[in-house]
Predict the 3D structure of the following.
Amino acid sequence: METLENVEFRGLRVGDEAFDEKIVTLEDVQTFAKVTGDHNPVHLDEDYAKDTMFKKCIAHGMLSAGLISKVIGTQLPGYGTIYLGQTLNFKKPVYIGDTITTVVSIKKINPEKKILILDTYCKNQKDKVVLEGEATVMLTD
């Protein structure tokens, strides 16, 4: 497990950015389905998925949203961050085998309340945005 350190609020600036990259695997999708109970066949059944508009299985949208949570909780702002809200706009499907780059950047800072507004998005290996939104988070110290 990684060692995480609290980020000092006064060190954060509008425009600060962090990112992470992950290849979405079949195991990721199966594990997400098991944990959440979302066994929608568009995620798990190739025979079913081939007759949909996607033509093959897609990852759960919330799996990509979880990648945003990872960056927020481990990088920017990092350890000790509490989610207050998140908007999500799903733009394109994520397929098994896609490489997803998650980007989080500071949009606004409220130093009195230690609250940040963050721009969040995920893009695939073709540089196409698959998910975008805005997060509101609070630092705990």
Observations:
- Helices lie at 26-36, 41-44, 46-49, 61-74.
- The beta strands are 17-23, 81-90, 99-110, 115-123, 129-139.
